[in-house]
Amino acid sequence: MSNASNVAPEGAFGAFGAFGAFSGSGAFGAFGAFGAPGPADPPLISQALITNHDGISGTWAPVTGASVLPNSEETTAYLSKLSVPVRASIFAFELGSRIGFGFEQSSSASASNWAQVYHLETVAPPSATTAVPHPVPGTKYQHLIAMRRPTQEIFAKQLTLVANYADLRQDRMAEILAQLGTPTEFLRAIAYIEPARTPFTIELLATAHWLANFVEMRLKYALACKRPNEFSPQIQPMIWTPSHGSLPSGHATEAFTMARVLWALLRTLGVKPYSEGIWGEMLMRQAARIAINRTVAGVHFPVDSAAGAVLGLTLGKYFVDRCTQVAPHTSWSFDGRHYPDTLDFDWRAYFDPRNPAIGHDPEQKAPPSDGQAAPYVSKTNIANPEQNQIRSRPLEWLWRMAAAEWADLAADTETAAVTGPGGVSGGGASQ
Amino acid sequence: MTITWTDLSRSQQPRDLLTYFALNAMQRFFEADRDFVNETPVGLDPVDYEDQMWLALVSVAKTANNERSWSLQDLLNKAGDYDPPLPEGAVIIPGEYDLSYRERTDLDVVSIYAKRAYLNAANAADGERRLGIASITTCAPLDRRSLHLSSDPFAPRTVTQSISSEAVVTAVIDHGIAIAHDLFRREENGKLALSRVDFFLNMDDVSQTSGLLQASLGRVWTRSEIETVLEKHLHNGLLDEAEVYRELGLINWQDRPFNSCAHRVSHGTHVAGLAAGYDADEPVGDDRRIIAIQLPTSVVRNTMGFGIETTIEKALEFVAEHIQNYEQDGEPVTPPLVINFSFGNFLGPHDGTGVVSRAIHAALADMSQATNRPRLLLLPSGNGNLSRCHAVIELTEQAPEKEIDWELQPSDRSASVLSIWLPLMPDIPDAALSLSITLPGESEAHTITVGMVPRFTLINRTAPGGGEVVIGIVIYCPPQAPTFRGQIMIVALPTDNPKDVRPVAPFGNWTLRFAKREGVGPLKLNAWVQRDETLPGFPEFGRQSRLSDQNYPRFKLPSGKTLDEDLSSRPSLVRRAGMINGIGCGTLPAVIAGYVNSDGKMATYSAGGPTLNISRLFGPDASAVSDDSVALHGVLSAGSSSGSRVSMNGTSVSTPQVARWAADKMAAAPNVSFGRADVFAQALTDDPYQPDKPAPTRTGGGRLRLPSVFGGLR
Fold it and tell me: Residue B410 falls within a domain, yes or no?
């Protein structure tokens, strides 16, 4: 049974494991660790080092504290000395510690309930006093994304789409199986990502991937939506159905998060031709293809992809904001109860790449409402985002390192002056 | 389970077996396929089987004095007067037939939409007298949403396309034509300049009246409407094809479980690419216009496993109408026309007198009469050379008896049909021939005799819980106009039903023993099994039944290579020769076989003659490349997505290359007639006689040396 490890089929989690699949290409391999111990020390070497120590270390010579300078504290310079898995833990903390979650239990039994994901604004604490020697920072939760699950009737109607999409399984099998791994494999076909060339871009995408997974799993858990194969014995997915809930689609969330982050990254330095709209078109098509393939495989409803796309696009923007010192200032909601029951998934309803090269910034959007029905996607501007909230310097560092990888080698680049890890201000790209 | 055989009396006998069988015996298979009885699938309205609308190709009967045919209006009147009354809307005359056509009294084959009650009444023994229908062919219910259910003629509306004097129109009748592919449009400076598709009839689309032109089945899209759709979905210089096809009704996952244009490879796109695909920046594209017809998926993929050709009349009628809607410098012109129909089947009299062949002939003759411009229809010779679906059974005084097995496959979800034609004999002596049929697992044969009396025998199987189920039918039709050859036909239910556990046809060998009565002259019988395989790209359901004779060698010894010619040294009843496309035996169309470019040999699957049509004895007219090499199967052409190239093989792909060549020829001489004979002549020129030239029954005039359209490098 291919599920013996209980890892392979788990969709999004499987994707983390799948970083291990990159191990042939060095930089990716380390992601396989994620908290696990690093490569084991070979016993032969350890044994040798023991006897070697005995043989040469000689008599113990004490040292004084003044003879060694302390490291600077809380400095991003330290990050470049850390291994990738260690940094991953730091980035995860930076992101995860600012995310809050709540589930609004409705008193009415018939009402479906809203799951809320918040961003935690923190401001520097007041100066310490004798009375309060360790003051805590000021905090405020702001809305980031709200989601409500569709009714069973909507899922049931969506099931016909799932059944019909099975037609494409033969055509898409290679893609579906390959996409059990990370979307990076498919995004790298578009952007020139390569472990030796763009290690920090890979790390940045993995970090965005982590955020997407972190949020989507909590939402899936809260919304607990049944999978297509729980509605009908005739769906018969061609891959393992993951153990977690159906909506939002993890693959859609992760792919759209990463696609949006990647395009913003590519455009940071204003290098040609990445601001051309076609780059956004391709990245979004790729994300949509990954999402739709999950419906072809029989493990997701199209509405799952729609919810995942809205969530992923929101998280992608949020992630870039966190990395570029922008106070998160918009929140989105996805109301599954108002999703048109027979509607297929079309990414263009939620995002328009437009053409930044001519000053038309990309736009996350809500699908046009047909007048009568309540909108199922809506955007809210956060009234007063805290402009002085504490920034994440590790995330800024990561962004800067990754952005520098996209500096042009062309002589006439306008951005030549700001290339290099130290010179990038970041935050310039809109999403 | 017991088998019983029940003869129907003359007055009980329906006239067309396949129509009767499709309408009645196949009910539970259509129902299982469409799921429309026990449950209501999400997204579909509950539909009663009786309410299903069928597309029928009918030949209109002559009036009592034989002077003229009934008119379409007469047919409607007769249906209205029928007693007992037929259900409301039981027959619909398509709106495309205008008022003047409805008065015509020289009709032969027309198409109608009808419910089962009408079709059974028309197919009954007295159907010709009571409803004015001389013969009838149907195969599968249509998707009702694509039908315009009114008999009123459409208000005459025309949309005219402007062309130059060098323009040639290529009509592609197919399934899965991704018309938004960049090979079918012109771009200038990266901007859309022209959709080269002038008229597109999507028989799959939901019927609607909002378009510029109306259609009784599906929806018509004209060039300006297509261009609007293309413009709307161009983003950052890229066409969002998913959105385009959704809007054009070619991809619709909510309503259809099969969407050809969503696949990487689609038959119609590949064929259209070869027939009329040009890079978007090639100016010649301005003068190679396209009329595209997407055939209905419900008919292409139906549980009979065949029958798509019943839609050809509607398609040709669409072409005939719109080829007149062109103008040049403000003056109406009818440009030269090439029509490609890369489909076929195995059945039919193979002499050009079948109903589909006649419909094609009539349409082409009509179109040519109306203008002196060149018109050419191309058909593939078919891929059935190795299908073992043809046998020639010669009964002589020395050998008056022959036995052959008809092998039905297990898990075949499509009906199986075997047709046996007697020689051309206006009068057949009583009991001249007998056929004894033994079903798999049965020890007793049932015998029918052949003379001038029609026979209709139901094969019943007892259901486990009691009751009898018709699992097959055997008929005999004495010679009649226009074929004048007697015909025995055996149809069997599928051997599997996905839902219904009642008896199905037994798979295995159906043993057929033919015996000629002493004193009757030698009889040469031609048997063909109908093609009922799943078409490429469709979900598996049909499995091809075949004829079996132990003398039929499949492989060369000792090499083990596939034998693709019959061995004269070892005569077998089962023949490769004569497997040519059953609708490719008429006199007017050009029929194209396929060869392998690398070694010049005929593709092993490429079917050939002889036919029984005196003006087409060899079979195909010519052959073109259908495989680049023995290793690289198929030829390259358009995949469904813009920019993609995929390979596909078969005579389906050799045929449109000839269509492309013919279009160039016509463009060079638009006022010179151009026909099948020109194709044959070119083939003779391209491929002069030499010892290893393939036989004319396989290659017709020879192997055309056409330039490769999309190259052979891959």
Answer: yes
Check the CA dihedral B649-B358-B453-B18 and report its sign: positive
Q: Give the pLDDT confidence score for residue A106 in this predicted structure.
A: 73
> What average pLDDT does chain B have?
92
Write out pLDDT tens, residues A229-256. 999 999 999 999 999 999 999 999 999 9
The helices-and-strands tally (H runs, E runs) of chain B is 15, 33
pLDDT classification of A153: cutoffs 50, 70, 90: very high
**Most A-contacting residue of B253, B265, B298 (CB-CB within 10 A), to test interface:** B253
Query: Which segments within B237-389 are labelled E, that is strand?
Result: 238-239, 288-294, 326-328, 331-333, 337-341, 375-380
Structural domains in chain A (count)? 1
Spatial separation of the C-alpha atoms in residues B297 and B317, rounded to whole Å: 19
Say if CB B350 and CB B526 are below 8 A apart: yes
Give the model's pLDDT for residue A411: 66
Mean pLDDT within B92-119 = 93
Q: Which residue of B has its CA nearest to A169?
A: B263
Instruction: Give the residue among B357, B432, B367, B444 at the shortest CA–CA distance from B400.
Output: B432
pLDDT at residue B298 in the model: 85
Query: For A97-101, B44-48, B161-165, which range has the lowest pLDDT when averaged over its residues?
Result: B44-48
Percent of chain A with pLDDT over 70: 84
Q: To which H or E segment does residue A395 belong?
A: helix A393-404
| A280 contacts B43? CB cut-off 8 A | no
Question: For residue A109, what pLDDT is reported?
Answer: 56
Q: Do B447 and B575 contact (CB within 8 A), yes or no? A: no
Q: Which domain holds residue B689?
A: 590-699
**B508-516/B401-408 β-pairing:** antiparallel
Which chain B positions have a beta carbon within 8 Å of A355's beta carbon? 236
Range of A215's domain? 12-27+82-99+163-329+344-369+387-418
Query: Residue B419: which CATH number?
Result: 2.60.120.1290
pLDDT the model gives residue A420: 44
Residue B575 lies in a domain: no
Say which DSSP state B21 is in.
I
Any domain includes B559: no
Residue A178, pLDDT above cutoff 80: yes
What is the number of structural domains in chain B?
4
How do residues B452-471 score in pLDDT, each as one tens digit?
999 999 999 998 888 899 99
3-state secondary structure string, A203-238? HHHHHHHHHHHHHHHHHHHHHCCCCHHHCCCCCCCC
A vs B, Cβ pairs < 8 A, gives 54
Helix (H, G, I), strand (E, B) or coil at B579: coil
Residues of A in contact with B258 (CB under 8 A): 164, 167
A348 in reach of chain B (CB within 8 A): yes
What does A159-215 look like in DSSP terms, one character per residue?
Answer: HHHHHHHGGGHHHHHHHHHHTTS-THHHHTTTTT--TTT-HHHHHHHHHHHHHHHHH
ipTM metric: 0.81
Distance CA B333, CA B671 (A): 12
Nearest one of A35, A365, A12 to A220, comparing CA atoms: A12
Identify the pLDDT of residue B367: 82
Contact (Cβ atoms closer than 8 angstroms) between residue B170 and residue B333: no
Mean pLDDT, chain A, rounded, equals 88
A349: CATH: 1.20.144
| Burial bucket for residue A83 (CB in 10 Å: 0-12, 13-18, 19+) | exposed
A349 part of contact set with chain B, CB < 8 Å? no
Q: Are residues B260 and B311 in the same domain?
A: yes
Measure A387 CA to nearest chain B CA, in Å: 35
